[in-house]
Each structure stands twice: as C-alpha cells, then as structure tokens.
C-alpha cells in the first residue's frame, strides 16, 4: 500500500460539511463541487456507471461490505410490467453508529445526487429513502434538499433534458432496528410488519412490491456521486486493494473527542483514535477493549487494537468486522460486562420474533449475561452460554441473530476471566454472609 | 429427464422432482421425515420455526430451511448429519424453554406436534433455569379456547386467517419474545371457517372451546362421515366415545373440501343430544305422549284408511336411501301422487340433472377463468367453497361478478345489480363483464338455489342462466360451466330419487293451497321442510318424521323419531351431484330408528312391504333409479339440456342474504353452541370492542 496521508485534504472529502459548520443547502453543496458533471453522468449508458462503480471496488457501507458494483449488476433490464426500484436504507440503528445522521442533516445533497445516479444506473424511475423514525429532524432536512433538487431541475421528469426520470420519496420508519435488514425494510415500506423475508428470492429479483430492487446504505450512495465526479483513480488512492476509498468512522466511548470523522480506509485503528478522536481517556495504555464496527461486531482487546487496520479484510482476519465502522472505545474504567449485558438487552428488545432460535434464544442469552455479569452462576454456565450462542448463530432467516451472538462470543473469547473473577468474588461474598 | 424435472440427492438417495419444488418436497417424495411446525401445504411458506433445517453440501456453512429452499439440480442434501441433528435439538430446546409443558392439562395432549417432535428430535435435558414467559389468554369468542402461553409462534393461524378465511383482524403484535398472536382489538373472530385454526395449531394454544376437557384423543373412535350442514358435503371424521359424539374434524379431500370445514359443521354436534325425539309420540288431546312403534304405526294405518288426499313433503338433510324409501312408501304403498321435496316456487326439473347440480364440480373453480354468481352468497351458503373462490380470485386473478344483493365475500366482486334480467342482457351485451365472460375459456355461472325459492320465476331464471352459459361457450363436451349451488344438503338426492309429484300430483305450492282450503286429509312432513306450523295445522291429520322436537313436530298427530346424520350409514349427494358415503358412527338415541327402516317397517304394517330388507338391497334399488349412485365419490357430467319455462324473467330482485348463518336450519337451532356463537356474531361491534 502506498503511503497515504493521515488526514484527508478538504477536496478529497466526500462529505465536505460533515461537521455541520458549512452550508448544507444546494448552494453550499454546489460550492463544494456538488452536481458537477451530473448531466454527463445522467447521459451515460447505465452499464458504464455500473462498470465505474465496479472498478472503484466500492463496498457497501451499511455493514456487510458487499461490492456495490456487483450488487448493481444483478439488476435486470427494467421491464414494462415490473419497474426497477432503488431503495436507500437510512434506518441507521446499529448502536454506536451515527454517520448517516450527519450525512442526512449536514450534507443531504450527497445522498440526493447519489440516489439519482443510482436510479439511472439501475434503470429505476423511482427511489425510496427509508429513514429511521427517530430521525425526524434529519428527515425534514433531507426532504428540504429533495425539494431544492426538484426546483433546480435535478430531479423529476426529463432531468436537464437527458430524458432520465427520477422521483425520490422519503418514508419514515417506526423505530424497529430490524427494519434496517433490507428485506424487513421492504416489508415495512410496503406497510407490513417489519420482518425479514426468506431468501431466495433475493431483492434483485423479487424486492419491493415483487419488483427488482436494490437496497443501498446512505453512505454508499452518497459516495457514488463523488466517485462518478472524481473518478476511479482518485478513489483507489485511498485504502488497500479491495478496501478502497474514504469512510466515515463514528468514534465514541472513552475518547477525548468523540464524533464522526471521514478518513481514508485502512487507517490504523490507533491512528484513528489518537489523531482524529483525541486519544483514549487516560492514555493508550489505559485502553481495555474496542468494538470496531458497531455493537454486532466482536470486540478486540488492547493489543489487537494497536495493530489492526480499519478495513474489511484486516478486521475480518481477527474474527471481527468493519461493520458500520462505529468504533466504541472502552478504557479500563469501563465495566465491560455491564456494557455487553446492555448490548444483549438491546438485541433481546429488537429481535423481530419470527424465528424460534432468535425469539427464544436471544432473551435467554440476555438473562444469562445479566446474571453471570453479576457473578451469579458457575463456570460451567459460561460454557453453556457459549454453546447457546452457537445454537442460535446461523440458524435463522436473517443475520440479526448472528449479530446478536457475535459480541457475546467476542466477550467470552477475550474477557472470560472477568466473568470468572466475578463468580469467584460472588462465591466469597455469599460464603461470608452465610 | 425432461426440462421440467431436476434430480437431487437426499441422504444418498437420488430423487427426481419438478422444477420449482422445495427441498422438503424432495424429502417427502422419498418418504424421508423432516420435522416441521410452521410449514403447511395449504398455506404460504413462513420458514420461521427453523425445525426443518437440513444440510446442503457446497452451500454456506449453515443449515437451510428445507420448506423454503428451492431444490436445485445436483443438490446434495443431508437430513441426518451432525449439523442437522444439533440444529434440530437446538430449535427444540428453544421452543420448549418458554413452553409451559402443561401436557397433562392440555387438550392437545396426545395429538400435539410439539410433544411428538420433542420425543423424536429433542434432547432429554435442558440447561434452562431462568423464569418462563407467560402470556395472557385472549378471548376470541365461543369457538376457540386460547392458552397463549403454549403458542410457539408458527403463525399458521395468522396465515390461515389472512390467506384462506380472508379476515385481516387476526395477526401478531409485538417483537421478539413479546410477540403475541391474536385479534388486535378484543373481539370474536368474524369468520365462518375459524375452527380450522384449531386443527392447524400444532400445539395447545388454540383448542376447541366446546370440546375443552371433554375427551382424550386416544379414547376416541373415529368414523368417516359426511357433513350435512351445507350442500358441499365436506368429508368429516366423527370422533365418538361410548356411543356419544365428542367432536367433528375434517377429512382431507382435494376435490371437495381440501381439508377445511365450516364452523357449523364443526361445532354443532351438541344438537345430536339436544331436544331429540327419542320415541314415537301420539297426540292425545293437546298433548303428545310417548308410544310404542306398534301403536304409532297402528295410528298411521287408521289415519290412512279410506282417505282421499294424502300429501307428503320431504325436507333437507336426508340421505339417498331415506329419500328412496320415503318416495317408494308414498307412491307405491300409500299410492299418493302428492309428494314433493322442493320448496314452494323452486320448481327444479328432476328429469334434467344438468339443471340442478354443479356441473363444473368444486374443483372446476381451480380451472375457471371467470365466475358469475347469480343470487348466491357463497360465504354464508358454503364457506369452504367460498374460500376456494377466494383463492382463485386472489392467486389466479379470476374475475368474479355477482347478480344479487351486494355481498361481502372477502374478495373483490363486480356488482352487476340485483335484477335477474341482467342474465338476458349479458347474453346480448358486448362490453364490460359480458365481454369478459365471452372471452373466457372456462367460465362458470353459479346460481343459488336458495334465493330462487323466493322467486315465482325460478325456472325462468334457471333457463336464462343456462341460455347464457350456452351463448358464452360455457357448455362444451369437456367443460360445463353451469352450476347450481345448494345451500342445503339433500335436495340433489331427492331429485335424483324422484321425490317430486307423480303425474297429476300436487307440488309444494299446490299442497300448501290445498292445506289452506282444508283439502288435505293426511299430511306427512319429513324433516325440515318449507311448510309452516300454521299450514301444517290445517291438515286433518299429520304425521311428522324427524330428529328434533320442533314447532313442526309439535303440530303432528303422530311423531316418528328418525336418525341424525351421524347415526346411519348413508349415501349423500352434494351440490355437485357427487355421491359421498358415510359410515354409522353412533346409534340413534333410545327408541329412534334409522329412517329407511321406519319406512320399510311402516310399509309392511300397511300391508304392502317395500321390496328390500337390507341396506345392500336398498342401494341396489337406488342404482336402478339413478346409475350415478353406483360410483361413489366420483363426479359425472350429466347430459345437457336447457329447462323449459313458460314464464319470463321478472325484475324481482335476487336476494341471497342469509339472516342467521349459525342457525339456518332446524338441526343447528337445536345446538346450544350455535346459539352462543350466533349471539356473539350478532352483537354490535362496539359492544365487543372492550379493550382488555
């Protein structure tokens, strides 16, 4: 990997107004070179756009990291009886993640432009943006941006005389985490109960209202506009092969300056925490653990955190993932078991209840975490807990249950000794009182 | 191997299945058992129980749900590998952690999928030591008892309600371990088919309310029978213990009822022991008193002696044997021509079978491309049939239109107005629905028999509908799209057996007039007929034959108690003219007798015994009368002709509305359960919507 700058130059940032200090509106976005070359892109054949995205090796920013260009190439040519749809997943709910929120409120036009290009590339005349219900203010801002774009002739029928029609609709969810799962999102968008669908069929063949549909994350679509504007070469300057581009990292927890930072991919985690987020409270040596990509990804211990690069492949090698790139830093003052128990409680609350292992099992896991983190239980139960997570993982319709089990498995992998200490202490305590 | 089949291997055995089949289909074809809860062949695939997991080689390193996984060419499937066995054990454990395990007090015990699978695929121990979840029971009416803590969330009931029954008020609320199944707002289920959810529920969450704590499945004897609460003749199984019917459940039959029955068929069996006539009765003064059969027959003999006008009316829900014997007794022994089985005005032509049966058969609905309903409300006249129309309207986009008062059938119906002359207009019109009808390859016209009973021009309406069928090409050598829908069971068999006036005999309307004029000397009333107690009182002497104590039986000078439908081996003819055989499940109560035996004995008492002594001999006679009865369970297409009517179609509106579905015949009115269910269905919505 060629040496890359630690900090991005302003012109290399996809999100010029991520901190909200500038002008979010169309005027401000245009100043930041927004919609430059838009007309040209809208005139391109759709395969050319897809090929460019393929060449950029852009990978989905919503968590799974699936190559966006490949995903787009699954879409069939639009037919008369079944239109193609593009759906933007703005149901940002992964604990620790807040990047889409700042895109929606501070740089909404990046998404609007990306959606329009995406619609063109996929042969979709209509795009839906499914925004998390709690993001009311943010969705209002996005709607203003969409209205601006319509007024400026950047959306609607026959955009700037190119013959391309794109209409964007915004839909607010009702606050269920599971609606961030793409097929549950489609169900919810159709007005049904948000529960993941069985796959196959996949959305590219049978998606929204049974029509071919592609679902992309907010950040992914927003980056598409920058890639089309600045070119593949610019994009591949950043990050390692297969992990190119820039990325927003939401850093939170025991750091001096928590926040959203756009940085080049494959940046070392230590650099990210120290140079962007002001460093760990109490110094790097005070670091206990880091959750690298939102609550679903297994945590890393301090040693791993000092060496790992923030990209899909390097994190995967350590048995975790980049996820949504929500870095949750925990120093030694943090009660790690309490944090993980709280995360388990979140998953218990958010399981949609469709599949047996998830509906019944996630609650059971939470119960055990809650009890064992207080030291009530035995060492054997720690093994049972691990066995239960294995009975749930991979047995359900969607990946929710996997995401709920990985953090528990990660805790047991790196911090089993914490449980054991508490169990020991608890035994001593009960002996004394008896 | 053709293009349409694929080959895959399951547990080392090769199997060929059609493209589009699932892995579970392939396993079933090989008779390899794959346990499952949520999958049901007549419902959509949910894939949520995670019990049918199998291992597929070369796929992702996790098991796949076989019910939802499309079978692929060359796929290698394992149903018993370690991965699969462990996954099943895991799922079983999860299902049981919050299940109350209250089998000893659960009505599902002994026929519970969860029990069976726990034994077959579960583990013997669980590490679960936390508290169990409890769920409040829902009050969803008088049909279904709920114990929602037992629910395993397979959603079969919810899928049945939305897909088959067509009610959208039953679903799941909440998330995760708080998912609850029920009506969103507290009220009774508004479906005529809801009892089927009891059969679908794999656990004891939904059980039959009238059957609660009544019997255990292993104590029950099971007898195949036919439901007679509507004209469909759904195949049922009568479950009885020590001579008493304990419950009624459906049998599978793709051609007739698939595997559903209506709630009237399921829950009305308590009428078998309520208000029954259990011994012959003789009127003395104003009171009826019990008598021996001998004395009752003597009384009938005396009454008939030297009398000129003897009339006989047969009602609904009689078997072919009983009707044949009744007809023979009247026409041969007593020698009266005044015999009829049709309601006043409903002058169906007994010599033209194609004019009074459902020629396309019920299964024809699955082929039809357009359906025209004429004066019928299938939802209340034949709920199971309506579910079939609904499926075709929804899944195959079959256009449905209706002539008659507007209906709520749970699917979209084009309203063509209530005037029967629309039939003649459709035959000549070229646009709108007439065009759809003409362009159709297999159109079906379904005429409701019941609505015709209020129309003086009933025969003209039938003729008009038949003419329309001919004009739109609904009558071909392979397809006959003209159909009659019989709300009540029995009339088809009556017409088949010729229970209509002999030459110079009076039909029902004329008999009624003769009664009013005081010209009927002796009147036989056999069951639930069109006649009123007031009209019956005008006869100089009346004899009632039937199963229940009713306003009619109370008018009679002599009452002869007969056997109900579960109490005799019999041949029934349903609305399609299909002959269905039922076995005798229990004995008639006390001194009541099987109907045909009564007629045979009475004929001997009157001095001219009918020429059959056994059921076999009687069935021989029936086949002589109508050859269709030789082929039980088959549907045969009769010779086609259009009935002749001197009348013109009037403009009187066709009204198919059924006032009280759960009480629409005398048998149902004797059931306490039916009265409770009717009362809750009559209650205004506001009263039921107590939030609780």
Describe what you observe in this structure:
- The complex is a heterodimer of chains A (434) and B (692).
- Chain A is an alpha/beta fold and 434 residues long.
- Chain A has 17 helices and eleven strands.
- In chain A, strand 2 (124-131), helix 7 and strand 3 (167-172) form a beta-alpha-beta unit.
- In chain A, helix 3 (46-56) crosses helix 6 (108-122), helix 6 (108-122) packs across helix 9 and helix 16 (379-392) packs antiparallel against helix 17 (400-433).
- The model of chain A has no long low-confidence stretch (mean pLDDT 95).
- Chain B has 692 residues and is of the alpha/beta class.
- Chain B has four domains: 5-96, Roll (Ubiquitin-like (UB roll)), CATH 3.10.20.740; 104-272, no CATH class; 281-345 and 491-630, Rossmann fold; 360-480, 3-Layer(aba) Sandwich (Dimethylsulfoxide Reductase, domain 2).
- Chain B is built from 22 helices and 26 strands.
- In chain B, the strands form seven sheets. Chain B has a seven-stranded mixed β-sheet with strand order 14-13-24-23-22-15-16, covered by helices on one side.
- In chain B, helix 17 links the parallel strand 22 and strand 23 (541-546).
- The radius of gyration of chain B is 28 Å and the shape is globular.
- The model of chain B is unreliable at 688-692 (pLDDT under 50).
- Classes of the chains: A alpha/beta (434), B alpha/beta (692).
- The A-B interface holds A 176, 178, 193, 198, 200, 348-364, 367-368, 371, 381, 384, 388, 391-397 and B 45-51, 53, 60-63, 65, 68, 70, 86-87, 90-91, 93-95, 97-98, 127-128, 130, 133, 152-153, 171-172, 174-179.
Strand order of the largest sheet of chain A: 6-5-11-8-9
Q: If you compute it from the alpha carbons, what radius of gyration of chain A comes out, rounded to the nearest whole angstrom?
A: 22 Å
**Going across the major beta sheet of chain B, what is the strand order?**
14-13-24-23-22-15-16
By CATH, the architecture of the largest domain in chain B is named 3-Layer(aba) Sandwich
How helical, in percent, are the residues of chain B?
25-40%
For the record, the count of structural domains of chain B works out to 4
